[in-house]
From TrEMBL:
This is NmrA-like domain-containing protein. Keywords: NADP, Oxidoreductase. It comes from Daucus carota subsp. sativus. The keyword Mitochondrion does not apply. It comes from the Eukaryota. SUPFAM superfamilies: NAD(P)-binding Rossmann-fold domains.
Amino acid sequence: MGDIEKKSKILIFGGTGYYGTYQVKACVAAAHPTYVYARPVKPHHDPSKLDLLKEFKSLGVTIFEGELDEHEKLVEAIRQVDIVIVTLGMPPIMDQLKIIAAMKEAGNVKRFIPSEFGNECDRISPLPPYQACCDQKKIIRRAAEKSGIPYTFVVANTYGAYFVNYLLRPYDKKSNKVTIYGTGEARFSCNYEKDIAEYTVKVAVDSRTENGLIIYRLPKCIITQLDLISMWEKKTGRTMEKAYVSEKKLIGLSETLPFPDNVPMAILHSLFVKGEEMAYDLKEDDLDVVELYPEYKYTTVEELLDIFLVDPPKPVLAAF
């Protein structure tokens, strides 16, 4: 593997968010000098954010405080690093245009990884609320391609811990109820966030991934809802009471719920009814993360469920 540098300075935007936290810790674990650009903490903010920033500092992370519309602050921060990874969610994902403008002025970024970490936005055709999100990601992709800054697009597919938590509700040991979207037979790639983040650190410093698209389809993480539930039943010794949400119902909710509540319905339809994560073949120039890093021992779905058995996480929010 050809590295950009043995240890690159990595700046993360969105580092205090759900996935961003994994990304920060993965960069630290790989011994890269790690930086986080975060909004200034105000008295009305959630105290947990302040605690998280304190934890980051204890790990040796450098914190830059600023807003994304403070162009000079962005340029100043970016000039101190080699790689920029963005983990912003919706709706601030379009603020990446400001980051791209700052990177162009700074002129020193060796790799830009925009906020993807989901489905392949150029190859799926979801319901309108989710399509609108994909269209925004496409705008960022095209801007990255035109910027002249070396980039890598990461298609990480499904956040495994998030959706295991969302689907199985392991934190509620008194409930044996589970909701199945569609028939439960669509395959999806249920990848543990820790692995996604650690793979992404490798991708960020690998010359083979420059200006490419890399897809995270981990063979032992490809599963259906029905198989996931069956696996959980065997591990817990519980029989789950299954309730099905039809395609028609999901489509209707995506059309009638207000934004942003309609977006999760469209995502569930894309993942679990249409099975869009696995509905396309890899192209010749697509990069397969497992082929690039065969030495990395990723977490299988079986192992992920074992983690949940020992230490069920707190409930996740309904909005993705």
